[in-house]
Specification:
Layout (H helix, E strand, L loop, with lengths): L14 E4 L6 E4 L3 E4 L8 E6 L6 E4 L1 H12 L6 H9 L7 H15 L22 H4 L10 H16 L6 H24 L4 E5 L1 E3 L5 E3 L1 E4 L4 E4 L1 E5 L1 H12 L11 H58 L1
Antiparallel strand pairs: 1-2, 1-5, 3-4, 4-5, 6-11, 7-8, 9-10
Helix pairs in contact: 3-5, 6-7
């Protein structure tokens, strides 16, 4: 049941507080009330000691904004105005509004059951550094991470409605990050000297001593270091990313074989199109010839009918 709006003409008996030091949020009766004439819609400021850290906390910004919104809220008062307001509801909800309503219903209905798979950990997830909910203190009192819950519910709506288009924007961002990873892999491989890693061979003797593996160059008369060549460890991951995202030359139809197949297919389609055109032309000629024969037959029947009438009159 929705809580009644507080009486704004007198100081509030219970206030929502937000501590600026530890981000703790709580509701309590104010310990100190000060006059605040710069807020004519509700000229009082409230303060209370934070039960978590002991610092003095002020009234939550969202509640101050809500008090101002209530003070400025107006509505129709005449019968004509009320009728116009009721007419605004015609044609609603639209399909998009219905999806939004469904999303909100799922968010509240599944919050306790499913969204808690991603518990709220302010500052504990990689995306917390840029999360708008953490910056506005909305994350602190939640049971589940709001960003992860939104991600979960978007997928719930998309799967229930069978509309993958609802995830297009999200998938575009994911694909952009994958492309960025591929670019970083290519740059790292190039900076390391190419697709191979060159490392010196070594061995240890029976006393545990460390020695580099070398050999004597008979021509130069010098000791040469023996090196081990290995494929770059990022090379396998790079190939996997390219293959799984259909970004290889074969997928892009840029190999000689795929181009030859495309040329052959194009030639086959052109020949089939020419054959269809010739067949349609032949059918059209046959149809026109049939119409001509029908006209000749009709003309001959008309002449016979006229001759018969002339003979009958004579």
């Amino acid at each position: 049941m929705r809580k009644p709006r507080p009486d704004r003409s007198n100081p509030l008996a219970e206030v929502s507080f937000a501590c600026a030091e530890c981000r703790h949020r709580f509701e309590a009766a104010p310990e100190r009330v000060e006059d605040c004439p710069e807020q004519p819609h509700h000229p009082w400021a409230y303060f209370h000691a934070c039960p978590a850290c002991g610092a003095e906390a002020g009234q939550a910004a969202w509640q101050r904004s809500l008090l101002k919104a209530w003070a400025n809220a107006t509505g129709p008062r005449t019968p004509e105005g009320m009728a116009r307001t009721a007419a605004n509801l015609e044609g609603h909800p639209t399909p998009e509004e219905a999806k939004l309503t469904r999303f909100n219903a799922m968010k509240h209905g599944l919050f306790a059951r499913t969204a808690t798979y991603f518990p709220a950990k302010p500052g504990g997830y990689p995306h917390c550094a840029t999360c708008e909910h953490l910056q506005t203190e909305a994350c602190v009192p939640q049971r589940a991470c709001l960003k992860r819950a939104e991600l979960l519910l978007r997928h719930e709506v998309a799967f229930e409605s069978g509309d993958p288009g609802l995830l297009t924007g999200m998938r575009a961002g994911t694909q952009a990050m994958i492309q960025a990873l591929i670019d970083d892999m290519l740059l790292t491989i190039a900076a390391d000297g190419g697709p191979r890693i060159k490392s010196p061979e070594w061995y240890s003797d029976k006393d545990g001593g460390f020695h580099l593996a070398q050999y004597l160059d008979d021509v130069a008369g010098e000791l040469r270091q023996i090196y081990k060549l290995e494929a770059h460890p990022l090379l396998k991951h790079l190939i996997d990313y390219l293959a799984k995202n259909s970004m290889t030359l074969a997928d892009l139809e840029m190999t000689p074989k795929s181009r030859d197949e495309q040329e052959a297919l194009r030639g086959y389609l052109e020949k089939e199109k020419e054959g269809q055109a010739a067949s349609e032309y032949q059918q059209r000629i046959v149809h026109q010839q049939q119409k001509l024969l029908d006209l000749i037959s009709a003309g001959m029947n008309r002449e016979k009918l006229i001759e018969a009438e002339v003979v009958g009159d004579g």
